Amino acid sequence: MREQQIQRGKEWLETVLKLMGLPTEVNIGENKVDPIAQGTSWLLIDQTNLTREQIEIIIGPKGEGIDAIQYLANTILNIDVEEENQQAFTVELNGYRLKRQAELLAWANSVVEQVRQTGQEVEMKSLSSAERRQIHTFLKDADDLETESRGQEPDRRLVIRLR
């Protein structure tokens, strides 16, 4: 069942890219680096035949394009699928997700250090909902810290503070 869903995700993404005028292949990968996203299947867009401009279009400013594609994949591909059978997908292109994750973790660690030194809460702005969720999960086991999302989209922020 899971393999069928993953294959369906691959085919769906290839169709979306073809409709965008970007006929390229999608490979299936497993999450090997992100302990936060265990059980997530990676849909890896093959960049071999894409121009730099096409890659930039897919990723979009601040990752908005690839985030939107990933959101659609996770929403559309899980419609009418029972919750226990739903499949989470991460869409990757040109190492964007891995680079962004490293940036997020470095930023979160810097903010954590600041919060612990000053005792003052810090707001992290300009994060997508997926990025906020990633940091919430990353910090969930820190006994001395708590996180919350504050505000309304598009100005929703992640707050880190001492418990």
Descriptive key words:
163 residues; alpha+beta; 5 helices; 45% helix
Radius of gyration: 17 Å
Strand content: 15-25%
The gross shape turns out to be globular
| Helix fraction bin | 40-55%
Strand arrangement across the biggest beta sheet: 1-2-3
Category from helices, strands and their pairing: alpha+beta
- Mind describing the biggest β-sheet? 3 strands, mixed
Can you write the helix and strand succession as a string?
HEEHHEHEHEE
Strand-helix topology:
Elements: H1 2-19, E1 26-30, E2 40-45, H2 52-59, H3 64-76, E3 88-92, H4 96-118, E4 122-124, H5 129-139, E5 145-150, E6 157-162
Parallel strand pairs: 2-3
Antiparallel strand pairs: 1-2, 4-6, 5-6
Characterization of the model:
This protein has about 160 residues and is α+β, with helices and mostly antiparallel strands. It contains five helices and six strands, in the order αββααβαβαββ. Strands 1-2-3 form a three-stranded mixed beta sheet, with helices on both faces. The longest helix is centred in the middle third of the chain and has 23 residues, at about 95-120.
